[in-house]
Write a structure and sequence with these properties.
With 634 residues, the protein is an all-alpha fold. The protein has three domains: 249 residues, no CATH class; 257 residues, no CATH class; 101 residues. Helix 2 packs parallel to helix 5, helix 4 packs across helix 11 and helix 24 runs antiparallel to helix 25. It is globular, with a radius of gyration of 27 Å.
């Protein structure tokens, strides 16, 4: 059974990976190996505080366990899971044993085992007895993280199809994205901890985690304290056995979550329906009401609602490590930006329900406008409230026009761009009743989200440029003029891009429906190959993929952390230098460095966009030739 499942897993992986996934996996494996080697090197270091090394290893092992818990949730469905075998007459524990062996036969497991080798290095610094104890301790620690990952993933899947699950999913996703984007802030905090040591309360909490029990056992073996050597290992073995039994019990078909969440009662529909139809006459009011109900009922939409505010709030809390609150007024703008990025696949999220719109020709514009208004209804008051709360908490009125302009421009630009991007760059996803549990299984919208962020930032530039000019010229009237500029930009984007999206939906609706049904663009008869253009991400070479993601990373880091963030600190008049390069150079050079960083960020984002466009243009140019060759051979 074990050998069969391992071979089955390897066969599935061998036949399901594309060049893009191989490139991303290779990048992930490289990063994982670097982190594992860093963990091992950490065990060789000496620190002034005698117990600091043990605390650092405890924190590191806890982070590895967290990675195992959070990683599978957002990486998509595993190659093999219990649902694939729930109709087979296989005992659950036998199946669990086989799936555990298949999970251990992975590159990620080997990388984690390398990282946990730091425990053996730590034991070698104590005694040979500690080395002997460290071997079973490493095995138990590895089994702990693997089984914990599988159990948490199954529990998460049971929860993910409810609105509460959508809230949890969005919050955890936002925390992971924020942590990965701004984890370099934590490096400053780590440097301070290395200098002054961990607080006693934090040290006690992190050592009480199961991921630290093997470390406690090895340290006790080095001291010859056998009760504290055997006790943590036995406790760890009991936890591993309990996780294995829990996993065995959870491997059956899901019976807890319902695939469809029931919405509000008919009485609510009677109360609010006429009011909305009075405000928006005709089909637009009916579609708007339908969209509002969908935003309230659909767990995927719940994730979208929570994702933006959660990301912006968590990101704004990072600078509090240094007592900086400059990011607070811009929480609403960041939330609107993230909301636009996460909602850009509006039609793709609805799946093949597009046929309901296509069967009534002439209603495309009403559908697009209703979606735009529903998005503004959901996120407009929310982001404006966050902006107001952030300005009050920060307390500096000088940033109020900046925050209002950025928020209004992001809302207006986002409402127009999400309608346009949703039809011109649609990513096919599963129908809502077949929706998977992982955010990555709703369609790979990574490129679409990056494109939305880039475009929304462009729509914010006129308003922020007016604010910059007012600040530079010391003209308060011009500074506050950025707010009406933001309103004008937002209204233009909303109206013009919505109209373009409606025309595109009317002209290419059947092709979009075919794309959502089959996952591939439609090929009209007699024009084979003309429109069968593959995704640039699937055909791009590894070198160009690396260039694209590297340029994107440089653009994001240069524009936000090293450009806009120190800009806000300078405007606030704060003297804190924290981690920003521009604030560590002499005063006359700070503004030029900020300008250079913003320019580098914009150049990086533009370079990533050009790489994408070049590949797409190449595919479009090659498609007619391929079609002509097919017709000639026919």
């Amino acid at each position: 059974m074990v050998g069969v499942l391992i071979r089955m897993k390897l066969a599935v992986l061998r036949h399901s990976r594309t060049d893009a996934t191989r490139a991303l996996n290779g990048l992930g494996y490289g990063v994982g190996i670097c982190l594992a080697v860093t963990t091992v090197v950490l065990a060789f270091l000496d620190f002034s505080h005698p117990r600091l090394l043990m605390d650092l290893l405890a924190v590191t092992f806890a982070l590895w366990a967290l990675g195992w818990v959070a990683g599978p949730i957002f990486a998509g469905e595993p190659p093999l899971n219990g649902e694939h075998f729930h109709r087979q007459p296989v005992p659950r524990r036998t199946l669990a044993m086989g799936l555990l062996a298949a999970a251990l036969a992975a590159v990620t497991t080997a990388v984690t085992l390398l990282a946990f080798g730091a425990l053996i290095v730590f034991a070698a610094r104590l005694s040979w007895v500690a080395v002997v104890v460290s071997v079973p301790a490493v095995v138990l620690l590895l089994l702990l993280v693997v089984l914990l990952s599988r159990v948490v993933t199954l529990l998460f899947r049971m929860l993910a199809k409810s609105r509460l699950g959508g809230v949890v999913t969005a919050t955890v996703t936002a925390a992971m994205v924020s942590l990965s984007s701004f984890s370099w802030i934590l490096i400053i905090g780590v440097s301070l901890l290395l200098e002054y040591g961990f607080p006693p309360a934090f040290s006690m909490v992190v050592r009480s985690l199961p991921s630290s029990w093997s470390l406690i056992a090895v340290e006790a073996a080095g001291r010859g304290d056998w009760p504290w050597t055997v006790g943590p290992l036995l406790a760890l073995a009991v936890v591993v056995a309990a996780l294995f039994l829990a996993w065995s019990a959870l491997l059956g078909p899901q019976r807890i979550a319902r695939p469809v969440v029931r919405g509000s009662s008919a009485q609510q529909a009677v109360r609010w329906g006429p009011l909305i139809r009075d405000l928006f006459r005709g089909d637009q009011g009916a579609i708007y009401l339908k969209e509002l109900r969908t935003w309230w009922r659909d767990p995927v939409r719940t994730q979208n609602i929570v994702m933006g505010p959660a990301f912006s709030i968590i990101t704004a809390l990072f600078p509090l490590i240094f007592g900086v609150t400059t990011a607070f007024p811009f929480v609403g703008a960041a939330g609107a930006l993230m909301a636009a990025a996460t909602c850009a696949n509006s039609y793709g999220q609805d799946g093949t329900a597009l046929w309901l719109t296509l069967t009534v020709p002439g209603h495309e514009k009403a559908d697009v406008r209703a979606r735009q208004l529903a998005w503004l209804t959901v996120f407009g008051p929310l982001t404006l409230a966050l902006t107001l709360a952030g300005c009050l908490l920060h307390g500096d009125p000088a940033l109020v026009p900046w925050a209002l302009a950025a928020t209004l421009a992001a809302l207006g630009g986002g409402s127009g761009l999400l309608a346009w991007v949703s039809v011109v760059a649609l990513v096919p996803g599963p129908d809502p009743h077949r929706s998977k549990n992982s955010p990555m299984d709703h369609g790979d919208v990574t490129g679409q989200s990056f494109l939305m962020c880039f475009l929304v930032i462009i729509t914010m530039c006129p308003a922020l440029g007016a604010a910059w000019a007012g600040h530079a010229l010391d003209l308060p009237s011009l500074l506050w003029a950025s707010v009406p500029v933001a309103l004008l930009t937002g209204v233009l984007c909303h109206v013009m891009l919505g109209s373009v999206a409606a025309r595109t939906l009317r002209d290419k609706g059947p092709e979009l429906l075919h794309l959502m049904r089959s996952g591939k663009p439609a090929v009209p008869a007699g024009k084979a190959g003309e429109d069968a253009v593959e995704s640039p991400f699937s055909t791009m070479s590894r070198r160009r993929q690396t260039l694209l993601w590297s340029a994107m990373a440089v653009g994001i880091l240069g524009l936000f952390p090293q450009g806009l963030a120190p800009l806000g600190i300078k405007l606030n008049g704060s003297q804190d230098k924290v981690w920003f390069l521009a604030l560590h150079v002499p005063e006359p050079w700070q503004w030029p460095v900020i300008a250079v960083m913003i320019a580098i960020g914009l150049a990086g984002l533009w370079a990533a966009y050009r790489v994408y466009r070049t590949e797409k243009s190449r595919l479009q140019a090659a498609a007619p030739r391929a079609g002509a060759d097919q017709l000639t051979s026919a």
